[in-house]
């Protein structure tokens, strides 16, 4: 089974934001009709992915929603 496009998009975005791209790990699981993505980054990079007031995380979620809608699915993002 190939990797969902949403997971690839998330990994690409996260690697561009962090100082340690090698530490970016994206895992996915399907629950009912929703694709749940888990993003893990190095501890010092968590703030860069979440952003001030959660703005960056909100923007990433919005982009993932657009990709998922185009694919006819739903997506949920957890940042660990």
Unreliable stretches (pLDDT < 50, length at least 5) are none
- Main sheet: strands, sense, barrel: 3 strands, mixed
Structural class: alpha+beta
- The CATH superfamily appears as K homology (KH) domain
The overall pLDDT, averaged over residues, is: 94
Count of all domains = 1
Please work out how many helical segments DSSP would assign.
3
Rg over CA atoms = 12 Å
Strand arrangement across the biggest beta sheet: 1-2-3
Strand-residue proportion: 25-35%
Please report the total strand number as a whole number. Answer: 3
Helicity level: 40-55%
List the helices and strands in order: HEEHHE
Report the top-level CATH class.
Alpha Beta
CATH topology: GMP Synthetase, Chain A, domain 3
User: Could you give the distance between the termini?
Assistant: 25 Å
The best one-word shape is: globular
Please identify, by name, the CATH architecture.
2-Layer Sandwich
Index terms:
3-stranded mixed β-sheet; alpha+beta; 3 strands; GMP Synthetase, Chain A, domain 3; globular
Question: Short summary of the structure?
Answer:
With 80 residues, this protein is of the alpha+beta class.
Write a structural description.
The protein has 80 residues and is of the alpha+beta class. It has 3 helices and 3 strands, in the order αββααβ. Strands 1-2-3 form a 3-stranded mixed sheet. It starts with a helix and ends with a strand. The mean pLDDT is 94.
Secondary structure topology:
Layout: H1 5-17, E1 25-31, E2 34-40, H2 46-50, H3 55-71, E3 74-79
Parallel strand pairs: 2-3
Antiparallel strand pairs: 1-2
Helix pairs in contact: 1-3
